[in-house]
């Protein structure tokens, strides 16, 4: 994670976490903003007005244990040993799904898939890699739209 400056979590506003996150005390994130966006797209089906992507600087998570991540390759997953509600406090904030999709498109990555839980892993494998420079430009463009809890 040494060259990862930001992590992203596609979810809904203030979602406390699923069963695995709550029982194990973990927050699942991705180093790839497009892959986190797929998770927000999936959330939009149930919560159309609350699907968001949280953005956190890895510096704000320094000292938090990084645990085993089963989907590291497919989802660029980074799992932190803290509950999602604690992650949200450390995050820069969140952006709407539409704002993230626009920012991704501006750096050449279109993420407009119809995402369902049963095909998320497959969809993650279809996304192109994203460079650190593209992530930096994306975050810079999103800063005016970031909302804090």
Tell me about this structure:
The chain is of the alpha+beta class and 149 residues long. It has one domain. Helices cover 38% and strands 19% of the residues. The strands form two sheets. It has a three-stranded antiparallel sheet with strand order 1-3-6, with helices on both faces. A three-stranded antiparallel sheet has the order 2-5-4. The longest helix is centred in the N-terminal third of the chain and has 12 residues. The radius of gyration is 14 Å and the shape is globular.
Short description:
This protein has 149 residues and is α+β, with helices and mostly antiparallel strands.
Which key phrases capture this entry?
alpha+beta, globular, 149 residues, 19% strand
Number of strands: 6
Note the beta-strand portion: 15-25%
Which overall shape is indicated by the principal axes computed on the Cα atoms? Answer: globular
| Largest β sheet strand count, sense and barrel closure | 3 strands, antiparallel
Give the helix level as a range of percent. 25-40%
Order of helices and strands: EHEHEEHEHEHHH
Structural class assignment: alpha+beta
Please report the distance between the alpha carbons of the first and last residues: 26 Å
Number of domains: 1
Cα radius of gyration in angstroms: 14 Å
- Which strand order does the major sheet show? 1-3-6
Q: Which spans of ≥5 residues are poorly predicted at pLDDT below 50? A: none
